[in-house]
């Protein structure tokens, strides 16, 4: 995971589109690592509108080659052949957001945790709402698995990629995990 300050903008973000079955995801990477994964079926222009912080101060250039390793791992995950990622991330946010995203990376494949569990994991048990906001700002869907965070009562809650995408990702993981 990158440890980048919020103010440091990417100079160039190479981007491409992963198209696989019913999945179509905008994927962006810098020289430092995976920088952005958009919602299913969301165009680059819509990503810009919905996630202005990920685009501010950056030049996005269509270039499939540098993004290919990231797309390959995400595609393997969507096929059920990958349960963890080896790609580097270029995550940029506040120290609080980086702590939350780090906690997300520790959630095992096929499991779900509550927002309050993430707040406890980062040592801020009373910051559940702030944790929710940081999770909502996660620029890298799927590989930083914010889809694994659910309400304390087990309900599905908001997701930047939409609840339909969150449901599909959770179903994909639960189908791939052997019964215990």
Description:
Strand 2 (23-30) and strand 3 form a beta hairpin. A 4-stranded mixed beta sheet has the order 3-2-1-4. The protein has a two-stranded parallel sheet with strand order 5-6. By secondary structure, the protein is α/β, with parallel strands linked by helices. The radius of gyration is 15 Å and the shape is globular. The relative contact order is 0.16. The longest helix is centred in the middle third of the chain and has 15 residues, at 64-78. It contains 7 helices and 6 strands. The protein has helices at residues 44-50, 52-55, 64-78, 95-105, 115-121, 128-136, 163-176; strands at 12-20, 23-30, 33-37, 59-62, 113-114, 149-150. InterPro entries: MethylDNA_cys_MeTrfase_AS (IPR001497), MethylDNA_cys_MeTrfase_DNA-bd (IPR014048), MethylDNA_cys_MeTrfase_DNAb (IPR036217), MGMT_N_sf (IPR036631), WH-like_DNA-bd_sf (IPR036388). Belongs to the MGMT family. Its EC number is 2.1.1.63. It comes from Paenibacillus soyae.
